[in-house]
Recover the amino acids of this structure.
């Protein structure tokens, strides 16, 4: 097993880190898209995310990570156990962060006939795929813009319904598949289809840092990590632990965190000003703001918090206007300045 | 390597041979090299040289650019699966080459999707297989040599791959008479491999590498990291336990100089601002660490070599200046041209002129399921579907057979055969040739820009591409190479100026050249020519209305001969006879759009050009 670069050792890229932390606090914000320059540690950060997630409870031996607190029988495995009157034991497991590598075939993504059992025993059994493994966790696609179209279609469908329906090879299986989609990529290799773009709750635009001290610091840490991974990880273990506790505490606070009327209204006005389609943007904006408030230990979401997450939640939802040269980030900033002027914030 | 008489080695070759030695020392850390050279003795010699330096028995595999996922990543091994009666993983070339080198042939044609796979294996040092009913992680430590036979500037391996390879070697100008053994012993390589992990680098030298990379405007952070590893390998090759200033300078020459995007700024004069200067030893302490940094944990304790030896070591800044001074002589000559084109300073996005990474359609189209049938006439057996089809019948077919008897464990019959169905994807690239001359008044140019952007917004949904040629004054220029990137297109269009004479023939020529490039990549070009037809500059670049007209018609005839789908949009206020003539000569549709706005123009173009095939 390769050692993973610790999250707290990542230099700069604050927005990317913030987005991932928010997704760790509240999975319902619906995924993170990290798009930007090469060599900025996009996939490093996402892989490090797994280390920050507090463990979750699942039904023992359930390949679909079913929640023991939920009604039983949601998935084929639990339904069979329920019918057989078997006992349900809850066990703690790490939240899955499942990699969907390029070149993956459809049968491994959705699940298919278990080849081994079919050949050796002549049994017709379903072998769960990556979507099942990612249930209640994260599904990570590096170079998401290079993913084959038919896999994208499939993901869109499952992400929308929260359920994976498999009808192939004489099998008929459905199981829950609710996961946080995390994607990264470089826009120069191709843009993302708008439908897929829309599935991501938050989006981050990463840029190569240009100031030399930051660059030196990044290279130095990377070098130190490679030369002594165990020592490096140990060095940052405390910081990672503190971050993990912070996320766990924020999750606990989340249900009590309220959103002020002013923030709700500002969110609505912001979405109108930007002309984002549908309600998804507004809901994500509120949820992300609430998660950030919980992270910061603030009881009520105010305008400042809303302002901090607005670019993350909205920049990829703007309708493309090819004749507007301004980047989407600039447009969000412009709308923010209008809806939440600086003097309001100060007061 | 050989016992021939000593000869004068070219400097380029010498550097390339040194780079090969470093790849042999640390293939995984350095990622490998891209080797730009025509197929021939020079390239063969470099590869043989690399092999010669690698320890005996090191895997050295060759892969074609059009390799499919089965062979690249691996999949189900049919023969072994049938024999064993259970699914057996067949390793792909990458996993097979674990611990060695994979040579990618014709890497300039490598599809972006394959480059993405290579990149993820280089980064993760493992092949993560989620294919055909198999899930496995196969440790894969390797270096890649990308053979680049590109001739044009834009024919090169995808940037996603180049970014991860330490050495970008260009041997096109080296004659085989100038090649030979620069005097490196494989035994020295073996010793260096053993020493590599203990080579120390001082902070000042690390900073000098980062600073000089930034000074020549290299944006990617992988470059200084690769240069650092190269410096370590150089020290190890020399039998030293610490990186010296010379190692830093050579690492710059080998790794960073070929990536340079700008000449280094002149050394700061008295009183000049020093914001660009890298921090020196003294103020390194108050570097502002990111706010969420763990206190006191700015960096890991560095492996400090014996630093205070005889004389005062150079500070990072001094060393960096030294490195950069030496570098100016070896920076690529066309850098000046690039600088003039407005590239300077630390840019974070690629600019026109350097290109490569494109998502290209998968070879043979994308898989679209499978159907019963035999693997003939190019149809490929879909192993998994075949086995799945055979699976339910196994108990029946093997019943009554003596388990001890020979024969396959899995009975597959002819009716089980399934072949993969692939949907061909032929991408359309629409090349806009826009008349930016004074006669096509400036507002027309703005409309043309808008139309291009609108079309592009649609194209990228269909995954088509758009290119833009502009012609004005005496020349035509490829302003935007074939791209799907809206961001890049906008940038190119924003910088497009108008005014001047109308070199129509040259514009058509440039569009044709671009179309040729598109064809070479196996894609389908279409040309949209926006002009008012009032040409007054011929191919020679000299003014003259009549000659210009004849040249334009001749160029148009060539387009027709090439069989390229075309559309001529006449943007003059009153229809121009010449524009119509050009359209006829091109075999193109003619469209007069005197008052069209961007939206009308874009929909007209979309309607006039037949939809992409496939």
């Amino acid at each position: 097993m390769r050692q993973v670069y610790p999250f707290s050792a990542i230099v700069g890229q604050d927005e990317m880190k913030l987005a991932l932390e928010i997704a760790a606090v509240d999975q319902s914000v619906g995924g993170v898209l990290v798009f930007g320059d090469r060599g900025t540690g996009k996939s490093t950060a996402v892989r490090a995310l797994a280390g920050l997630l507090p463990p979750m409870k699942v039904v023992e031996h359930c390949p679909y990570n079913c929640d023991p607190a939920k009604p039983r029988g949601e998935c084929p495995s639990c339904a069979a156990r329920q019918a057989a009157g078997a006992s349900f034991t809850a066990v703690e497991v790490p939240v899955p962060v499942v990699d969907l590598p390029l070149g993956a075939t459809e049968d491994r993504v959705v699940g298919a006939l278990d080849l081994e059992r079919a050949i050796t025993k002549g049994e017709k059994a379903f072998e769960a795929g990556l979507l099942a493994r990612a249930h209640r966790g994260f599904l990570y696609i590096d170079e998401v813009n290079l993913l084959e179209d038919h896999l994208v279609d499939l993901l869109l469908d499952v992400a929308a319904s929260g359920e994976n329906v498999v009808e192939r090879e004489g099998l008929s299986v459905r199981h829950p598949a609710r996961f946080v989609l995390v994607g990264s990529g470089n826009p120069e290799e191709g843009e993302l289809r708008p439908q897929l773009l829309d599935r991501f709750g938050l989006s981050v635009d990463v840029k190569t840092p240009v100031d030399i001290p930051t660059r030196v610091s990044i290279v130095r840490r990377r070098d130190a990590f490679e030369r002594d991974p165990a020592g490096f990880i140990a060095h940052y273990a405390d910081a990672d632990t503190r971050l993990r506790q912070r996320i766990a505490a924020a999750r606990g606070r989340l249900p009590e965190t309220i959103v002020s009327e002013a923030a709700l209204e500002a969110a609505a006005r912001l979405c109108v000003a930007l002309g984002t389609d549908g309600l998804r943007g507004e809901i994500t904006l509120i949820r992300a703001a609430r998660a950030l408030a919980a992270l910061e230990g603030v009881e009520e979401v105010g305008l400042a918090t809303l302002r901090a997450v607005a670019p993350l939640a909205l920049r990829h939802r703007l309708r493309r206007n090819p004749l507007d040269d301004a980047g989407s980030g600039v447009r969000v900033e412009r709308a923010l300045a209008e809806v939440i002027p600086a003097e309001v914030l100060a007061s | 390597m050989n016992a021939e008489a000593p000869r004068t080695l070219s400097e380029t070759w010498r550097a390339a041979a040194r780079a090969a030695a470093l790849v042999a020392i640390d293939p995984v850390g350095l990622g490998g090299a891209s080797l730009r050279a025509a197929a021939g003795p020079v390239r063969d010699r470099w590869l043989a040289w690399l092999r010669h330096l690698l320890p005996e028995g090191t895997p050295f595999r060759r892969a074609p650019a059009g390799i499919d996922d089965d062979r690249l990543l691996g999949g189900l091994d049919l023969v072994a699966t049938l024999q064993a009666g259970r699914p057996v993983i067949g390793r792909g070339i990458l996993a097979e080459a674990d611990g060695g080198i994979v040579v990618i042939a014709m890497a300039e044609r490598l599809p972006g999707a394959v480059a993405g796979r290579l990149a993820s294996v280089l980064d993760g040092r493992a092949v993560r297989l989620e294919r055909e009913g198999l899930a496995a992680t196969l440790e894969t430590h390797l270096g890649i040599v990308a053979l680049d036979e590109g001739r044009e500037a834009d024919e090169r391996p995808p940037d996603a791959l180049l970014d991860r390879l330490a050495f970008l070697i260009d041997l096109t100008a080296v004659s085989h008479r100038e090649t030979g053994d620069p005097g490196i012993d494989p035994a020295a390589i073996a010793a260096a491999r053993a020493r590599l992990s203990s080579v120390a680098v001082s902070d000042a030298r690390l900073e000098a590498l980062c600073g000089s990379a930034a000074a020549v405007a290299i944006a990617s952070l992988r470059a200084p990291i690769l240069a650092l590893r190269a410096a370590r390998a150089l020290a190890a090759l020399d039998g030293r336990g610490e990186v010296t200033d010379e190692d830093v300078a050579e690492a710059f020459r080998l790794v960073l100089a070929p990536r340079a995007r700008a000449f280094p700024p002149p050394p700061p004069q008295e009183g000049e601002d020093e914001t660009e200067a890298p921090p020196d030893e003294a103020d390194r302490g108050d570097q502002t660490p990111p706010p969420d940094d763990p206190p006191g944990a700015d960096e890991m304790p560095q492996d400090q070599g014996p630093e205070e030896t005889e004389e005062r070591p150079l500070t990072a800044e001094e060393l960096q200046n030294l490195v950069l001074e030496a570098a100016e002589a070896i920076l690529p000559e066309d850098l000046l041209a690039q600088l003039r084109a407005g590239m300077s300073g630390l840019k974070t996005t690629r600019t026109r002129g350097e290109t490569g990474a494109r998502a290209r359609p998968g070879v043979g189209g994308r898989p679209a399921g499978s159907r019963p049938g035999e693997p003939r006439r190019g149809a490929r057996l879909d192993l998994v579907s075949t086995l799945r089809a055979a699976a339910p019948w196994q108990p029946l077919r093997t019943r009554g057979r003596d388990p001890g008897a020979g024969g396959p464990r899995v009975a597959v019959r002819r009716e089980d055969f399934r072949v993969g169905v692939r949907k061909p994807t032929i991408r359309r690239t629409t090349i806009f040739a826009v008349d930016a001359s004074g006669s096509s008044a400036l507002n027309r140019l703005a409309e043309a820009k808008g139309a291009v952007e609108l079309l592009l917004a649609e194209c990228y949904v269909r995954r088509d591409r758009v290119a833009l040629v502009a012609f004005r004054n005496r020349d035509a220029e490829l302003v935007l190479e074939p791209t799907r990137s809206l961001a890049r297109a906008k940038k190119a269009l924003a910088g497009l100026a108008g005014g001047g004479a109308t070199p129509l023939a040259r514009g058509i020529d440039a569009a044709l050249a671009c179309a040729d490039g598109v064809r070479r990549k196996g894609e389908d070009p279409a040309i949209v020519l926006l002009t008012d037809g009032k040409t007054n500059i011929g191919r020679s670049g000299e003014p003259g209305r009549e000659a210009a007209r004849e040249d334009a018609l001749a160029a148009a005839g060539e387009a027709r001969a090439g069989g390229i789908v075309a559309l001529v949009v006449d943007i003059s206020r009153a229809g121009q006879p010449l524009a119509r003539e050009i359209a006829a000569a091109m075999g193109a549709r003619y469209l007069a759009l005197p008052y069209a706005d961007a939206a009308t123009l874009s929909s007209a173009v979309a309607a006039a050009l037949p939809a992409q095939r496939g």
